[in-house]
Amino acid sequence: MNKTRKIIASKLIKTQIVLRNKELQKHVPPTHPFTQKRLSAMLARYGMIYVKPDAGSLGIGVMRVEKKGGIYRYQSGVRIFTFPTFEKLFQSIQSRCGSKRYLIQKGIHVLEHEGNPFDFRVMIQKKPSGGWECTGTAGRVAHPRKAVTNGSQGGTIYNAADLIEPKHGSEATTLLLQKMEQIAKLTAAQFGRSYPAMNELGLDIAVDRKLNPWILEVNTRPDPCPFTKLEDKAIIRKIVTYAKAYGRQYCLTCSKAKKAPKRNK
User: Fold this and answer.
1) Angle in degrees, CA 140, 141, 147, rounded to 5
2) Which of 34, 60, 154, 156 could in theory staple to 143 by disulfide, Cβ–Cβ 3.0 to 4.6 A?
3) Is the pTM here over 0.85, yes or no?
């Protein structure tokens, strides 16, 4: 146990920490180190997977990889590359990865808003009085030409309920938001056991078409930018207040993420 460590860079290590909790295991997509054999096996099994840097942030370097019939393709940023064989696909991805460590994660067919995928960022922090509290949940809708939802990649930030309720109703929305908070609290407790000095986590949670939540990633130094774009300013105020209590100050200049249009009431 590292009693002073507050930041973990490796996504694989963070995934392994989450998997120590039996309740959370069912919410973690299969995630493995990138190899040719693993890429072939996971594409054959799932049809769509993500290849992402083991250490990285802001959605940089993330690739969505698909196999449809005999055609292979992947998307990086706004560019889509197509290949007639698996070998050519692998060679291209491997050259893009270079010497950095990458992971392969099962792709989740997530909910969409106006044809664009979205997921959620759940912020959980240590309270000044002690204990963990979920201080905010924001929806993140992908840029129309991209496969990642990050605000830093041009995503649009929504009030979480506004993305769920119109199609699934208020009761399902309440239950899903409660479930995401429960997942965040279990995750924080699990991290806290190994790293008691940790004060904050940002969970990226995707929701599939059956309304099952999936932990895509756990951020140990989360960016509060999504919450600056929400109409309810009390959320970002609380996040900043809690952070100051444990000694972190944020940069709140968030120019790349877009703010959702106001709802018609």
Assistant:
1) 110
2) 154
3) yes
**How many helices (H) does the chain have, and how many strands (E)?**
7, 13
Contact call for residues 258 and 229 (beta carbons, < 8 A): yes
Give the Cβ contact number of residue 158 at 10 Å: 25
> Do residues 15 and 67 both lie within one domain?
no
The dihedral of CA 124, 180, 48, 141: what is its sign?
negative
Can you give the CATH number for the domain in which 157 is found? 3.30.470.20
Q: Is 10 helix (H, G, I), strand (E, B) or coil?
A: coil
Q: At which of 83, 106, 129 does a domain end? A: 106
For residue 76, what are the domain limits? 31-106
Number of structural domains, the chain? 2
Q: Are residues 136 and 244 in the same domain?
A: yes
pLDDT (tens place) for every residue of the chain, 265 residues total:
566 778 899 999 999 999 999 999 999 999 999 999 999 999 999 999 999 999 876 667 889 999 988 899 999 888 899 999 999 999 999 999 988 999 999 999 999 999 999 999 999 999 999 899 999 999 999 876 666 655 455 689 999 999 999 999 999 999 999 999 999 999 999 999 989 999 999 999 999 999 999 999 999 999 999 999 999 999 999 999 999 999 999 988 887 778 888 776 5
Same domain, residue pair 92 and 141: no
Phi-psi region of 61 (alpha: psi -120 to 50; beta: other; left: phi over 0): left
